[in-house]
Amino acid sequence: MKKRKIGIKGFARLQIVDNKSKKIVGDSGWFENQITNYGLNSCIVAAPIGAASVQAAGLMLGNGTNPASDAVALHSSNTDYYSTFGPAVIASLTARMIQSFNGTLGAATLANIGVFAASSGTLLAGKTFASSALATTQSVNCTYEWRYSTS
Amino acid sequence: MKKRKIGIKGFARLQSVDKKSKKVVGDSGWFENQITNYGLNSCIVAAPIGAASVQAAGLMLGNGTNPASNAVALPSSNITNF
Question: What is the ipTM of this complex?
Answer without folding.
Answer: 0.87
